[in-house]
Amino acid sequence: MEQEITEFKNKAVGKNISMYRRALGYKASDVAERIGMKEQTYLKYERGETQITVEFVQKVADVLEINPLLLLTVSPGNIIENGDNSPNAILAIYGHHNQTTDPEQTKLLTMLVENVMAMNEKILKLLEEKK
At the top level of CATH, which class does the domain 7-130 belong to? Predict the structure, then answer.
């Protein structure tokens, strides 16, 4: 079963994907085509209108040739606060090195992200029950 990114993080991850895509000089249509979907469908993910899954993040990270954890963990607001939105500044801040993870590492990272997300869900439920 695909693990979904929580609704709370959905828009932030979509912004991260959009930010990296633009910083790396990719058009939305190029990324969409390479992951096998229509551009309009892909853009709904970037806008946070469609639930983002770990599998989707991995596919986009492969196309952009970046570590998928960057798409999940970087806060787009930090870039604005730094005052320089040029592609080179964005990539320098967040360490793009034009490398992806090997398949085994990707599998382990995906499992880690899924476990953390499942744990977060349990914590949220416990906090809601406590209220």
Answer: mainly alpha
